[in-house]
Design goal:
Layout (H helix, E strand, L loop, with lengths): L1 H20 L2 H4 L13 H13 L1 H14 L14 H4 L11 H12 L17 H6 L7
Helix pairs in contact: 1-3, 3-4
């Protein structure tokens, strides 16, 4: 009688632990912030394991991965734009004009990046990064 309850408890604990870690946001934190792309089947299967054992954690895992963009494959390319070309999008007071920046990126990269998307994750740079690109920090 004691062995089956331990076995069932061990299986439940193992399933819960795999579901807690079966989230693309934990496996691939560098993928966060993507807006679209091809869905990674490994992450889908890992999230679907939660649906097999527990409906709510599985749905939460899918929701988190789609909301953060971690469920999508990375595009496989890196893109760089010369800092001199980006100066056109920065006003004298240091504010970035998103429309100009979007046009520059479209022209240079050949890809449309929706900078007004509400899922866009924006991070601020440091003073050293701004100085490296020849920009002056503004308050």
């Amino acid at each position: 009688m004691r062995i089956p309850s331990r076995l069932i408890g061990g299986v439940l604990v193992g399933a819960l632990l795999t579901q807690v870690t079966a989230c693309g946001s934990l496996f691939y934190p560098e993928r966060r912030g993507q807006i679209d792309g091809h869905v990674d089947p490994v992450i889908v299967v890992a999230d679907a394991v939660g649906l097999l054992f527990y409906i709510i954690p599985g749905l939460i895992a899918f929701g988190v991965d789609f909301a953060t963009g971690a469920i999508y494959f990375p595009h496989g390319k890196t893109a760089q734009v010369a800092p001199e070309k980006l100066h056109e999008a920065v006003s004298a007071d240091g504010k970035v004009d998103r429309a100009k920046l979007e046009a520059i990126l479209q022209n240079e990269l050949g890809r449309s990046l929706p900078l007004n998307d509400p899922r866009l994750i924006e991070s601020r740079g440091s003073v050293e990064q701004l100085a490296m690109f020849g920009l002056k920090p503004a308050a």
